[in-house]
Design goal:
The protein has one domain: Winged helix-like DNA-binding domain superfamily/Winged helix DNA-binding domain (Arc Repressor Mutant, subunit A, Orthogonal Bundle), CATH 1.10.10. The protein contains 6 helices and 3 strands. The chain is globular and about 50 Å long. It is mainly alpha-helical.
Length: 130
């Protein structure tokens, strides 16, 4: 099936891009999600990543030790923590995001504007069901 082949190739590409960063694909994905949202509460981040808050705590501890993220107390809820990227985390996010932008340009260069619009519509439809 084409979806499986696409997923396998995308996954292989992602692993090849991440391997030189010193981070695991899961760590890079965490940085990527935080980078898109700028600041996230632990619960929200865990939900976005599809993991438990317990698993996220371990992951954030590791990323914090690597200097990629930091915890900040929530302004209105003393029980909650906000997760933000550090300067190094932001650099890593921007660098990785450039790879995604280049990849997107590369794989879509032979598509017409109409085909890109159709593909975008179809991807949004599929993503709503996930």
């Amino acid at each position: 099936m084409q979806f499986m082949e696409f997923f396998d190739k995308l996954s292989s590409w992602e692993h090849s891009v991440v391997k030189d960063s010193g981070l695991s694909p899961a760590q890079m994905h965490t940085i990527e999600v935080i980078g898109h949202h700028k600041t996230m509460m632990m619960r929200e981040l865990a939900d976005r990543l599809g993991i438990t808050t317990g698993s996220l705590t371990v992951a954030i501890d590791r990323l914090e030790k690597l200097g990629m993220v930091e915890r900040k107390p929530h302004e209105h809820d003393r029980r909650a923590w906000l997760i933000v990227l550090t300067v190094d985390g932001t650099k890593m996010y921007k660098q990785h995001n450039k790879f995604h932008e280049e990849f997107t340009r590369e794989i879509s260069q032979d598509l017409s504007t109409k085909e890109i619009e159709s593909l975008t519509f179809l991807m949004k439809t599929v993503l709503r069901r996930m």
